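Hi support team,

I'm filing this because I wasn't sure whether my run with (2S)-2-hydroxybutanedioic acid finished correctly. The job status page said complete, but I'd like someone to confirm that the output block is well-formed before I use it downstream. Pasting the exact inputs I used:
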Amino acid sequence: MKKISLFIAFMSMCALMVSASQAQTTAQPIVIKFSHVVATDTPKGKAAEYFKKLAEERTNGRVKVEVYANSALYKDKEEMEALQLGSVQMLAPSLAKFGPLGVKEFEVFDVPYILQDYEALHKVTTGPAGAKLLKLLEPKGILGLAYWDNGFKVMSANKPLKRPEDMRGLKVRIQSSKVLDAQMRALKAIPQVMAFSEVYQALQTGVVDGTENPPSNMYTQKMHEVQKYCTLTNHGYLGYAVIVNKKFWEGLPPDIRKILDQAMVEATEYNNEIAKKDNDDALAAIKASGRTEIYTPTEEERKAWIAALKPVHKEVEPRIGKEIINDFYKATGQQ
Ligand code: LMR
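And here is everything the job wrote out:
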């Protein structure tokens, strides 16, 4: 008798396990739409794919990450709105694109020559200054998960740009940042805000004369095919914050969220390991293409670029806030 009831208990446990696993396999996966505007073959493009891989593998398919590269789903401005509306769950916009969202403090990253190199950048992004900025997103219903590196910008045009005076009168495409606007005006250029997806054509047709970008973006968008000259000014930094819809992220089952948080940590490490090399490789590929002449400023010319752009630090103080700028100076040892 005892044996029979043990057998029945065992069988019903098996039935329960089978139906639980069936429920799991038939349940709809949680879909994370991850939209971005660059090519897959860039640090951000590769890291987004890596996050997808880790997230899907480690949740055994309970999470599906759909990555939309190259503005395939949304362009710059639309994607921010889509995130707030919940039509997309994850983005990694350039730090220069948070102004229209009402978090203009991120434009501190655009201040020319505020970050000298990757070492200085990491002091900010892995320290309190970076954390403080991400916190500012929360009242907007957005969570900042990580900083993903890209690189330092070069100036390009169809005429040589050896000195800051060479920028005079040029129509230059910029991202939607008032600091970048001030930067171009300090050079007496005419800034034009434009979505990333439109830059190649605008350069090709002469709607704008030049632009600024890290080499990885320049190369993967083929901008070097329509820009004859580029100068290694390294005058500013372009990188990203990975952001999610707060309500969505906080509403995830805790076990899933833990896995995704860890996947993000690893995707971030991966991104930040490859960013510099990807940019060095892109620059080498631009050089090898023979389409764009790459110019390295002399020490005297470099000083002239710095002198022309340094006044922007003071000029943008009222917009960004003295405290935030000082946080950056402090983190990078400029004070
Ligand atoms: C740009 O618009 O130039 C960049 O922000 C694109 C990107 O995401 O790197």
